[in-house]
């Protein structure tokens, strides 16, 4: 039997929607764990979670929790990360942070392994996991950029409620049931728990995710714009986003228009390129009604791309439809994948 | 009391989802009707419908049904229109056809009153009502084109299931209930009753509306592209569309990117322009979370526009969110509106 070294892994926010997916992903990937520390806020501490059949008691996250930890996966909100990730890093842990706390910090690499694995080497104890809607898009854009160049991206999203947390899923389901029953209901969470007004999400589409910034774009839209440029090392790339919440439980869909640099590219070339790219499954046979959907992408690690069409007016323009599980590739799986690369690159020893 | 002339109006497809809305719209608008003839296929004939409190028996539509009819509103499928609209026209009726049968016929005007009312004069007995997703978009685009010029349109839609008929609404509701109950279900209608495969619409997004054409775009997408150019008299306009069905009952939403001709236009100018345009209600106060939604546009005649933003890279680029009730402005109301113009323009006497 091979002697595989195990690592001390901490999961911060273990009881949340993403934390739960982190644990199941670590399990599914058979991640080499010698010790598992599950951490949370005081509110959730004391809960017991199963990992590979063994019960683990969730403990209150504090600076000392990270003594001896090799890899810490954070997904407990930006303020927790801001406070505790530096403490964990100071104690020698490498933090993979799934919040927006450090993403645009020039000192912190923002990583999607299929796109910019090499950036991991620049870490100073913290590596940021990008926003869910950004991750699946750059997975599809990077092979195109590499082969054909990329000038422009315009994306409209169709985002699942699980991106707003477990309570938002509950709200969508309860609202749906109320509407089917013809009963009254009061929206309390979506579009954004931290904002003033709340709207019906069941049988509706809400063009707001996160709060609005001064320029009229939402923070979610600005994340997609700024994070894409950072991950792809293309500050000059033209990116625009409209982010919309729709009544789907798991799986973000994206309608993406791009302009490549190279002239005369065919749809078949683009399909071949994406079919052979890391982390992508091409689902694109319109004659057989084969295309990606949230319902079929949910629960999977890959990014699914289809509906690839050449623009009818612009030789360099293409349209496509990109779908992935927002809690897996969009969060838990991308974080665990970074952790796996920390090992394979020899950064965590 | 003013002596208002009444007209003999026929509604073909009176028992369908759009037919029903045509009747309620005629009622709400107090349309000057001297005689009302309700027509349908043999299957639905004999049904009784109320109009202004009076019962009307639906009759089988045949060529002779149109004797003496002034205005015939068709919404019973393309094949019925192809067969009967010319027969009705031959008998002196002016037909407003809500199917795709004649829309791209160069002899048939394709009309959205706010955009190209004058085209009504070119009619030879048939006037086509455009596709639902096209109508609401051109209502918003026309005032922009007039004031600022227009070069490019890229739209991604979020379309309600009612566009696929009453049975599709039933399917969405039953599927939603099955999923909430954890029960199995078999999709039978959506994305397109006439196509081979059927997929889950509840808690999902399906990037297919209508069948696929040879170029990889769907017929719905090609309708948006070709009809927009025809209605706006801009064969050279660059238009691209991605059409997506989402689990909403009434109200199509559209994420639209445009490029205007004029330089230096501000968001405020665009807002002022749209706020004063015919048929549009501007809902655009991000700081107050005011933007259009299907849930608030359903049941209304107007087209709602909001989320207007200037592109961050292109001075001539703007993004916006356009919502309207697909069965009203997208179908019944636009048809009745054309009928009203036939009277106000003195075409029907």
From TrEMBL, chains A, B:
Catalytic activity from the UniProt record: L-aspartate 4-semialdehyde + phosphate + NADP(+) = 4-phospho-L-aspartate + NADPH + H(+)
Molecular function (Gene Ontology), one example: protein dimerization activity
Residue ranges occupied by any Semialdehyde dehydrogenase NAD-binding domain in the UniProt entry: 8-123
Binding annotation for phosphate: 103
PROSITE patterns found in the cross-reference section: ASD
UniProt-listed Gene3D superfamilies: Dihydrodipicolinate Reductase, domain 2, NAD(P)-binding Rossmann-like Domain
Annotated NADP(+) binding sites: 15-18, 43-44, 162-163, 326
InterPro entries: Asp-semialdehyde_DH_CS, Asp_semialdehyde_DH, Asp_semialdehyde_DH_beta, NAD(P)-bd_dom_sf, Semialdehyde_DH_NAD-bd, Semialdhyde_DH_dimer_dom
Top EC category: oxidoreductase
Catalytic-site annotation from UniProt: 132 (acyl-thioester intermediate), 252 (proton acceptor)
Family note: Belongs to the aspartate-semialdehyde dehydrogenase family.
PANTHER family: ASPARTATE-SEMIALDEHYDE DEHYDROGENASE (PTHR46278:SF2), DEHYDROGENASE, PUTATIVE-RELATED (PTHR46278)
Record function comment: Catalyzes the NADPH-dependent formation of L-aspartate-semialdehyde (L-ASA) by the reductive dephosphorylation of L-aspartyl-4-phosphate.
Complex formation: Homodimer.
Protein name (database record): Aspartate-semialdehyde dehydrogenase
Gene: asd
